[in-house]
Amino acid sequence: MQPGPENRNDSPPGAKAELVEACLREGAFSPHRHDTYTIALTTTGVQSFNYRGENRRSLPGQVMVLHPDEVHDGYCCDEAGFSYRAAYLPPADVQTVLGGAPLPFLSNGVSADPALATAALRFVEMCATDSEPLGYQDALQQLVSAMQGCAGQAQAKRTVNTRAVMRVRDFLDSVPDPGTGLDQLEAIAGYDRWQLSRDFRWLLGTSPYRYLQCRRIERARQLLRSGLPLAAAAHEAGFADQSHFGRIFKRTLGTTPLAWRQGERSRTIVL
Predict the structure, then answer these.
(1) What domains lie within the chain, and their CATH numbers?
(2) 178-227, pLDDT tens digit by residue?
(3) pTM beyond cutoff 0.85
(4) What angle do CA 47, 82, 56 make, to 5 degrees?
């Protein structure tokens, strides 16, 4: 696979959503999943992918909204390939707007709704600029409202311990040592581990385990960019061994650590 050039904004926690701009001329992205929403706009060509058991296609003018923790891939349907811009939006940012309401879920994964497309374009553009936080927050609110409208979901809330979940999230953001278990998270949250797991998924769209694995992958990517060998990066990021690291990396990003590092070195995108 020889994808096109990449511009990436790896944002620290609490900052803007991560932005990716890319093109794919041949090959495919392996099945993978993120712990974030993927908000993507196809800019040229036809972006084909499998999502929730069906083949989907995204055309220019449409918007892709992939829910956290949903497996998907990506491939070219012709020789022209495609290009796109995407923002990886953390569910925690969405919850700053929702305040405990259920995360919007667009089962089709692709929408031509004009309000959603406009909101998504504005949000992605805001991620690419150095605008003040208020502008980003306003674009986020517009996007989340448009997503709710398309999802047709009720605005009802359920009783969840938001503060406790966010304490656990902050702990997982620190990428704790291997061996972290639900008993430790229960102590941090201050209430039942199984209720904590349900509340965590309700608010953030994924399980505490999956969230921690994605944080480990983020750390490993930073270490690989700094020049650390694969085995050392796997160890420093908290993986049991390089084989385990490789499996989780591919399951999360759709490619191997080696291929990803080679893509970084040649300034190409391999997600």
Answers:
(1) 7-151 (2.60.120.280), 162-205 (no CATH), 210-265 (1.10.10.60)
(2) 888 888 999 999 998 888 988 998 899 888 988 999 999 999 999 999 99
(3) no
(4) 5
